[in-house]
Every structure is written in C-alpha cells, then in structure tokens.
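queue> pop job 88
queue> type: inverse folding (structure -> sequence)
queue> payload:
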C-alpha cells in the first residue's frame, strides 16, 4: 500500500530556454511591477505545496495587482479626459 500524496500541481520554477517565448501572463506580471510578490507566491508554493500556508504571500500579490490595476485605470481615465479636451 502506497502512502504517497495525491498528485497536484508541480510547483517548480521553469527555466526559460533561449528560443522559448515568454508566457503572456509572465509578461503582464513583469510589467505590473508585482513580479517580486508573484515570485514569493511561487517560492512558497514550491516549498509548502499548500496554498493555505502561503496566504500572506498571496495577499501581498493580490494587493500589489489591485494597486497596479487602480493606477492603470486612473491613467487610462486621464488619457481619455485629455483626448476629449483636445477635440
């Protein structure tokens, strides 16, 4: 009888190959300025393999992305207002 854990995600870091395109999600996270907190979530998941033990990292990443989305919305609104003022 085997006592191995059920198979789930394999939370290991992939090494990018030279000819491999960067994943669009990774590009988005890099541009957001939240890559460090995303990496912290990945590291925690690789170590613990249980998202419940990574809640501080998950919350920090969520807060960072929410802040980034808010800044992006404000910037788009500002651009929209500037564009309509010039017409």
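queue> result:
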């Amino acid at each position: 009888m085997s006592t191995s854990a059920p198979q789930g995600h394999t939370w290991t870091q992939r090494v990018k190959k030279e000819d491999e395109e960067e994943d669009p999600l990774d590009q988005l996270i890099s541009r957001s300025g939240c890559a460090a907190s995303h990496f912290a979530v990945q590291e925690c998941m690789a170590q613990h393999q249980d998202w419940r033990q990574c809640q501080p990292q998950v919350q920090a990443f969520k807060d960072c992305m929410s802040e980034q989305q808010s800044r992006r919305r404000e910037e788009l609104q500002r651009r929209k207002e500037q564009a309509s003022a010039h017409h």
